[in-house]
Amino acid sequence: MALLEVKDLKVRVEEREILHGLTLTVNEGEIHAIMGPNGSGKSTLSHVIAGKPGYEVTDGQILFKGEDLLEMSPDERAAKGVFLAFQYPVEIPGVTTMNFLRTALNAQRKARGESELMVPDFLKKVREVSKSLNIPQDMLKRGVNVGFSGGEKKRNEVLQMALFEPSLCILDEMDSGLDIDALRIAADGVNALHSPKRAMVVITHYQRLLNYIVPDIVHVMSKGRVVKSGGKELALELEASGYAQFEDAA
Amino acid sequence: MNVAVAKTGGSRAVSDLFASAEGRLPGSPDVIALRREAFETYERLGLPHRRIEEWKYTDLRALIGEVLPLAAAPDAAALKRAAEAVKAHAIAGARKLVLVDGVFAADLSDVSALASEVSLKTLQEVLANEANAAAGDLLQTTATDAVISLNAAMATDGVVVSVADGTQLSAPIHIIHVATATGASAFTRSHLRIGKNVRATVVESFVAAGKTGGYQINDALILWVGDDADVAHIRLMDDAPDAANITSQFVTVGANVKFNFFNMTTGAAVSRLQGFITLAGEGSELSVNGVNLLQKTEHGDTTLVVDHAVPNCVSRETFRAVIDDRAHSVFQGRIIVRPDAQKTDGKMMTRALLLSDEAEADNKPELEIFADDVSCGHGATAGALDESLLFYLKARGLPEKQAQALLIQAFVGEAIEQIADDGLREHVIGIAERWLERRQ
């Protein structure tokens, strides 16, 4: 069974249709890249999957593990295993990263009917993961993302991914605002999390990120639809020839 | 019914109030005469209403209507119920001084555990036994504020505490006001004299025993902080949801003092904390912080006057209000800088978080500056929870209410963080968390 099935999805934002019938199937363990020019609807797709308010689905459906995702609240989706790594992670002053991580993890476990993680187990897990991502312990005591650099914010997203163990990770423009070193650390973190059970959807404008996170399947989006899908060589082709050909096609 | 008739009716009720209470009010004939004078002031002014500038957002005539009859002195059953409330609200390690329905309850208090440098009397015994000059001092009032005059007239008891110079108090003094009498009022007046070079923490709690409700509290606190002292003062007002609490505090701060005040309002249908703080000695640092957590139709008013009477003092005021449903939060802050109070540094910031479309916040900051070399400022904001932060938390698995709760905790955190003591800060956070749970 497919992990994620997006079928003929039509989405409006304030009366304007952004997605005009998008179809996408992601199976367990696959890495998909979604590429496309600005305004093609890439981020809209990620927001609709995560349940961000402000988007009106007028047609089509999204199934996650066979269940209707659009019927679920964002927190229910998270508990089911959907994780969106934000393009611009927000800063939350007054909520320490540690408190946030523990509250979120336990909320997800509670929603799944699992017991809360004991504090020592939780701390051990956070310490292990943050060490591998090169996140200093004192960063965890600060407000969520407050005063973090762009790279630190993205690493914090990867840290959450590692901790929450979702089955579907959507990375929305993870490379934006990162230099090569920061990108490499974040990408290494993501690659370490890839497993036969866990799928990744990497949304990016540039081919650069795909040098570090190598996709199985590349989709090209233009004007609210997937206009072409192919292997990883499609990304290189795009790098050479640009998006213009697809914009005409759409 | 026209206004004149209403006023006459109100006055008559008040006279009955005093006449029926007279046997309960301690003091020599001279003290009683002072009380009667204060009472006449109250009768003349009546309950404050919206046409009185200082009370324009808190119209007590509209909000409480009338003053309830004086609560009976607590009997054994009342004290037993109070004991349970005291147990529930006690702070580990603190020395409790308990007032039940306006009367000091020695058996519920840690009198013998007080440090030897701390002297404790009750207002009742001071007024009954000491020279009349002292009594006049204890019952001081102002000519213009009716609730303070009413308090002077009607105060049945309170604690009169003094802490000797140079004392480092390791245990906080915890004054707990417990209400056990439904539909009655309690009037208390306490005095705290903190000596020079003292380090002390004073906590005040206002609570109800069990299901007690519909009562009124009128409390006054007169506090002197001696030179070079370092004092934390925390007030936690968690009265019954249908009670009223009107509290007036007069604080005089000496030189080179660190004084840190924190108030949290989580209870009462109608409340007002009015604080009058005078910086009377140079080189002192004043930190005044507060959190109002209001829901349903609660009305919570914090009115503060910080008077920089001398040069070279710093004052900081940080207030946060979280307002749900149709609740109404009021913050009035006035900073006065007297003509020779040069180099004054006074700042005040108040922020309101509106959780519903019908919630209301009124902020009235005022600066009265008569010196020319000062740095003073104020700021006020009001707004809803940030949708982008809420979505981030929900996308990480937090249900709506829990996401809101986390952001509300963060919002009030800045004021709560000003409490230096870890244990007390946790205690306060616990009360805030229980308020948040009541919302869910």
Describe this structure in words.
- The complex is a heterodimer of chains A (250) and B (440).
- Chain A contains nine helices and twelve strands.
- Chain A is an alpha/beta fold and 250 residues long.
- Chain A has one domain: Rossmann fold.
- In chain A, β9, α7 and β10 form a beta-alpha-beta unit.
- Chain A starts with a strand and ends with a helix.
- The mean pLDDT of chain A is 92.
- Chain B is α/β, with parallel strands linked by helices.
- Chain B has a domain of 279 residues.
- Helices cover 28% and strands 36% of the residues of chain B.
- Chain B contains ten helices and 19 strands.
- In chain B, α2 packs antiparallel against α7 and α9 runs antiparallel to α10.
- The interface between A and B is medium-sized, with 29 and 23 residues.
List keywords for this structure.
A: 250 residues; alpha/beta; Rossmann fold; six-stranded mixed sheet; 9 helices; B: 440 residues; ten-stranded mixed sheet; nine-stranded mixed sheet; 10 helices; 19 strands; 28% helix; 36% strand; disordered N terminus
Short description:
With 250 residues, chain A is α/β, with parallel strands linked by helices. Chain A has helices at residues 42-50, 74-80, 97-111, 119-132, 137-140, 150-164, 180-193, 233-241, 244-249; strands spanning 4-13, 16-26, 31-35, 56-64, 67-68, 82-85, 92-96, 143-144, 168-172, 199-204, 217-222, 225-230.
How is this fold's topology laid out?
The complex is a heterodimer of chains A (250) and B (440).
Chain A: E1 4-13, E2 16-26, E3 31-35, H1 42-50, E4 56-64, E5 67-68, H2 74-80, E6 82-85, E7 92-96, H3 97-111, H4 119-132, H5 137-140, E8 143-144, H6 150-164, E9 168-172, H7 180-193, E10 199-204, E11 217-222, E12 225-230, H8 233-241, H9 244-249
Parallel strand pairs in A: 3-10, 3-11, 6-9, 9-10
Antiparallel strand pairs in A: 1-2, 1-4, 4-5, 7-8, 11-12
Helix pairs in contact in A: 2-3, 6-7
Chain B: H1 3-21, H2 29-45, H3 60-63, H4 76-89, E1 95-100, E2 103-104, E3 118-122, H5 123-129, H6 132-138, H7 146-154, E4 159-163, E5 173-179, E6 185-194, E7 199-208, E8 216-225, E9 230-237, E10 244-253, E11 258-265, E12 270-279, E13 285-294, E14 299-308, E15 314-323, E16 328-337, E17 345-354, E18 360-369, E19 375-383, H8 387-395, H9 400-416, H10 422-439
Parallel strand pairs in B: 1-5, 4-6, 5-7, 6-8, 7-9, 8-10, 9-11, 10-12, 11-13, 12-14, 13-15, 14-16, 15-17, 16-18, 17-19
Antiparallel strand pairs in B: 1-2, 3-4
